[in-house]
Every structure is written in structure tokens, then in C-alpha cells.
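Can't paste images in this forum, so I'm doing it all in text. The chain is below; anyone willing to post the predicted C-alpha cells underneath?
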Amino acid sequence: MDIRCDPCGLRYSNRAGFILLANPMVKADKVALSPEAVELTSKLTKLQRQTVLGVVAGKSQRQAYYDAGGKAKSDESADSIVSRMLSDAKVDAFYQEIMDGVAKAAIMTREEALERLSALARATIKDVAVFRKVRVGEDEHGAPVHQTVWEVKGSDSIGDEQAAAISEVSTGKDGLKVKLHSSAAAIKQLADMMPGWKAPEKIEATVTQITRKIVKAKR
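Text version of the structure:
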């Protein structure tokens, strides 16, 4: 038996025992169902099952009911029907079982945590900012004065891993400030999570914060 809820991005198959879902909060595209949830599906109507899947996907109760094929004559009637439906013990049990599976899938695994920490440890300021030298004027002898300036890369030039490395972006009296998470701290956490792996005893200092401040020059 397959249960589809296309507007919700969910599909359930009791042959495989999982839900396929399109949920940005859950990295996995499959959520395993408990044996209890699989058994409960046979006790619900198609309307009940698909309404629950719609609610799990983030739809309002009313919209989930309509998308599941509900035929209420008014919104008020739909609200009343779906409220009673979701209060039913079997329907509520099915909802709770699915939400438990979705919650487990949304939790970061150890492997994901190691990947994220590794990305933070490798990130440098050059991943998020562009530096260049520009002429800002002349000195008292007429020689050109140059200054190194920088700007944050555009969002289309920064990947998700690089963006996650940014700890703070703020402005103050000294101008724009960009701060990265500590690579040393990330390496320390990696070492704590990987028994037997010894982190480098000496870590070279890296730039984790830059501030843009314009220095006036004689023109």
C-alpha cells in the first residue's frame, strides 16, 4: 500500500516501511517508521492518513485536510472535522509515531558533526572575503599611497560550509567586521570526538577576524 501526499512532498510505503519527504530541516530523504506506525496505517482511512502527512509536512490542519481530499462545504466545517479527526486516538498515535521518526532524522549524526567541524577547522578568511590593493591618494612627496581593502563575497560565491564558518558580521565605529569561528576550537572538538586521533600540539595562528577601516590620505 502506498500513501501519497504530493502537495506535502511526502509519500509512505508500508512495503518499505519509510516516508519519503522533502523537508529542508531533515537532511535525510527517507524517514524510517517504527513497526507501530506501520501497523497503525491499516487502521486509518485514506483521508486520515493523508491529512496527518500534510500536517507533518507543515501544512495548516485545514489545508492538509483539503489537500487530502476533504469535501467540507465551508472552512468552518473543515476546521471542525479535522479537529475531531486529529483528536481520534488512532490518528493521534499515528501522528506521534511519524513525528518521532522525523525528529530522529532531523538530529545531526556523528558523521555530520565531524564533517561540519572539519569544514570549520579548514575555513579561512579568504573563503568569505576578497582582498585587493587600491590607491587612496599621495603622500607629501607625491608618491602614491595604497591601502588594502576588502569586501565580503556575494552569497552566490560562498558555499554552505563557508557560510557556516562565519561567527559574526557587524558594523561599528571602525567599520564592518567579519569574524569566523575558531578553527583551533573546532580541531579540539574533533579530537574529543575521535578517540585515538591526536590533534596537533601546536596550531599556527590564523586570522579569524577582520575589520574594514578607511585610512584618510592626502590628496
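The two ends are 78 Å apart (CA to CA). The first strand starts at residue 2 and ends at 5.
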